[in-house]
Amino acid sequence: MNAWDVPYHIIEDEAFGIAVAHLCRLCRPGGWVFVSDLLSGSDRDEAAHVRFRSRGRYASALAASGVGVRGIHPLYSLLNRPIFGGRIDNALAPLYFAMDGVLMSETRNNLKLLVGGKGAR
Known about the structure:
Blueprint: E1 2-3, H1 13-26, E2 32-37, E3 44-47, E4 50-52, H2 55-63, E5 67-76, H3 86-103, E6 111-118
Parallel strand pairs: 1-2
Antiparallel strand pairs: 2-6, 3-4, 5-6
């Protein structure tokens, strides 16, 4: 199951918990859950429609549904932020993607992938 670029748009904590529970419920035993978010040390409201949640918040919400965090990996450095804005950034997206492949590191990223596993490893 995956929730790519979705959970951080659920700004209400109760709705977030329900969404994570549903995602985990749909995952079969032995299956995987993939979620993208900032995954920093604390929750952060970025905009009226964006609330990034912490690693700890995800770990707790997933564990309540029998899913354990198996890893967290950097996703983007350039792709998930405005550089020039609008159509210019859209046109340059392939270049940003290629540059992310070269520049990416554990410390130089702005969005991460959480990999969760349900049941036995």
